[in-house]
Amino acid sequence: METHRITVHRSDENLAKEDQLAWKIAQLAADRAAVDDEVADMVVNRVIDNAAVAAASLVRAAPAAARAQALAHPISIGGAGSTVFGAPRRASVEWAAWANGVAVRELDFHDTFLAAEYSHPGDNIPPVVAVAQHAAARGLTGLDVIRGIATGYEVQIDLARAISLHAHKIDHVAHLGPSAAAAIGSLLGLDADTIYQAVGQALHTTTATRQSRKGAISSWKAYAPALAGKVAVEAIDRAMRGQTSPTPIWEGEDGVIAWLLDGPDAAYDVALPAPGDAKRAILDSFTKEHSAEYQAQAWIDLARKLHNEYPLLFDDPERIESIVLKTSHHTHYVIGSGANDPQKYSPDASRETLDHSVPYIFTVALQDGGWDHSTSYSPERAHRPDTVALWQKVTTVEDPEWTRRYHSLDPAEQAFGGAIEVKFTDGSTIAEAIAVADAHPYGAKPFAREDYIRKFRTLAADALEGSEIDRFLDVAQRLPELTADELGELNIVARYGYLAQASVPDGLF
Fold first, then answer.
1. Average pLDDT over residues 446-450
2. Which residues belong to any copy of the MmgE/PrpD N-terminal domain (predicted)?
3. Where in the chain is the domain with CATH 1.10.4100.10?
């Protein structure tokens, strides 16, 4: 890895292109370093993971609306178009990336990386696959798809390690726009100059506030990363046509760092692979066993453990005086009681809000001994009187040691859980702790290929025929060997009549 110091420059300093972060990223994307077998194997896992969570969301309102929008946009004349999850026909490439991005993100159930910033790097996959299908006649193969996805993960994760967005209330998709543009450029084998312009355009148009993840969280939470992917496709198209971007986009005196992040005196150290080095950042990311915000994953596992070990202690909320989760700054202030969002304690809250309420999630997992992507969020489940009573007794506090471990750069020390103290009305207590989720690479049962396959089969069982499940798994696992003609098979088609249960009001298109 090579570390690049990024600072703000006045316009009259004329910062050379070669010294700009967007150029460094473009060089990385244009570099044709060999893809490690281990990386290729993990890309396959994440392609399966994305399809799994998309299948489970097909008839939910946001993915259904996005799919209707996409299918209203026919294939453009420049290529073959792209498949849309659930549908048997193709759409225009940028709109297919949009629809598939929404389907993937809807349940908040795919992979994650957390550092200075947090991210879902699997959001890079929909735009890469969409462009690969549309432009397959250029001679693209499954290996090119893997190369593009590996680049997207590398760029987004490297930016997330170095540059905090949420500290300035900027949504984390501001790292996704540039990473998706770099990923598509890598897929297509574009030169660094073209990718440089696309990266700048994608960043410029994907900076938005974090209000989409605050208060009463709306369906836009699923759309935000899909928009970044769609914008990246469009940025690549413009850059290929010779159109330019604002520069220097990060370092300019009126640029992102000076006015949206740490200000004109800021300095960031961004480490990127050196020329010729493999892009391996995907191996540092981790997926979810449970459909909930990543910082809640370990708490679900701990709740499941407590439920199994103390089956009689938690059946009556009146026995419990308080449950305190001692955790990191991020968990406390984003999905914990430190957010000061009353919606996080409301049984009338949206699914998107409950997904970002660790008090609710822990309560339900503790009572049920597990977590379901659908029933755990149902209005009936949220309104159960004993759940509401116990839920109000669960709070979070920041613990400096858990915050330190959250930000540790040592993967073996980094932690996303915390310690729990349960106080009962009779004066007795229970104290436990968990550092990482069971499915984490350092957890009790790290996810492997068979786990991704099981997750796909489970989540796709209602939406897809068994033969379609088998077909997709075969194609996905052959990704490194796929020919251009086979790229269109990287799609899932719903069983006959399944999509009809989604009611989609008419829109403009």
1. 96
2. 20-267
3. 17-247
